[in-house]
Fold Type II secretion system (T2SS), protein M subtype b.
Amino acid sequence: MTRRSITLTDQTWVALILVAALLLPWMWLVGTAWAKWSQYHDLIQRDLPRLARLQGQVDMEAPLRQQLQQVRDHLAGQTYPAQLSGTQVLGDLQARVRGQIQAAGLELQGTDQHSPRMEGTFERFSITLSIGGTLPQVIGFLQALDGESPAIFVEQVQLQPAILVSDPEATPPQRVNMTLRLAVMRQT
């Protein structure tokens, strides 16, 4: 009988070894798959906020492009195009300003051109003017500059009385000399 129990135990061991040999690769495969799934799951959970931000950027692309076009359209009315040379820009600026000076009834006493300066994607052209006239004429001239397109920027103003009049209602009105630095922008 002992012999039979030894044979049965050997068969049990053989069966256990066979089952283990068959299950071990499957268990290894399931364990590896679980580890990979956990790793990918963790990566996805880590990257979900990034993906949400990217999706938000994709969703905002069309409105941002539309706003960019609106800004470009606005700048086109406020600045000179890049195709114009610096000489053309300064010539147009001086012609427009002289027209406004004449329309306001002021006297142009002198002009001076300054070297252009780069400011980001724009080039700034400026001139200094010396003008004489009455205070209401100067105010009218400055108001007229506000409506110009492309925009004319007033960088500096110096106002000095030419004839001192203490009464604002007096005739003749207060005469002033004004030194004025004006600038325009050109896209580059």
About this structure: The mean pLDDT is 87. Residues 8-77 form one domain.
